[in-house]
Amino acid sequence: MSAKLAGIVGAGVLGLVGLVGLLPVGRAAPPAPAAVEDTMAQRMQACVVCHGQEGRAARDGYYPRIAGKPEGYLFNQLANFREGRRHNRAMNHLMQRMSDDYLHAIARWFAELDLPYPPAQAHGLSAAQQRAAQRLVFEGAPERRIPACVSCHGAAMAGRLPAMPGLLALPADYLIGQLGAWRTGQRKAAAPDCMAEVARRLTAEEVGAVARWLSSQTLPLGTKPAAHATEPLPLRCGSGEP
User: Fold this and answer.
1) pLDDT tens figures, 154-195
2) Contact 159, 150 (CB under 8 A)
């Protein structure tokens, strides 16, 4: 080895020795990362950010309660976000690469949750507005081909199998937003889109009154969606058919 090359190698060795001397002595190994359970409960923690703990949204939030809703309804909505029939940037992004099987698993997990509804709160409606809202909920407006809400969503308004959602205790702003989206074509469902037809037949004032009345109601713990209707629905509804 030439004297010049030997000098370069020697300098490199000395440099490494010096560097080693600067390293701390006796430093403990970094702790192992905490184990995370690979369960649906753990995976669905991402949903809590918007929908509340275990899918039970806070009353003052915009996002809906999803706990206890029919599996068929929840699957349809996840698929609608994936296919672009509903529009929410976060939901559209999250759903775009999920398979039908995984969407069914998500829907089933939330459908099986049995969590209490929030207590009833004042709706702030006048007596006339309250009567108008209750008439639409329980009787509809047959002269305008508007069916009663209970005829599809169940007598307790807790939903109906296989795919009609419960509507009570949802935030009024959320209900107004969804009915408005159907009226303007921003929200769509499988054809025939019965809710788009109903929403377009309601006035803006009726939408506000019904939404505020529904948001002010509650249900006892253990209330489940009604069984599949034995009679035909008042309107053909693509998302409500098996």
Assistant:
1) 999 999 999 999 999 999 999 999 999 999 999 999 999 999
2) no
3-state helix, strand, coil in the chain (%, to 5): 50, 5, 45
Q: Considering Cα of 113, then 115, then 120, then 121, what sign does the dihedral take? A: negative
Span 51-62, pLDDT tens digits? 988 888 766 678
Residues of the chain with pLDDT under 70: 1-27, 58-60, 241-242
Compute the distance between CA of residue 96 and CA of residue 83 in angstroms, rounded to an integer.
8
Contacts of 41 (CB under 8 A, 6+ apart): 109
Q: Closest Cα to residue 72, out of 25, 108, 97?
A: 108
d(CA 111, CA 170): 16
The structure tokens 């305008």 sit at 144
Asked if 96 and 85 count as a contact pair (C-beta separation under 8 A), the reply is: no
With tokens 């009570």, the residue in question is: 168
Hey, what's the torsion of the CAs at 36, 44, 227, 168, to 10 degrees? 140
Strand ranges inside 75-212, DSSP E: 159-160, 164-165
Burial label for 92, CB within 10 Å (0-12, 13-18, 19+), is middle
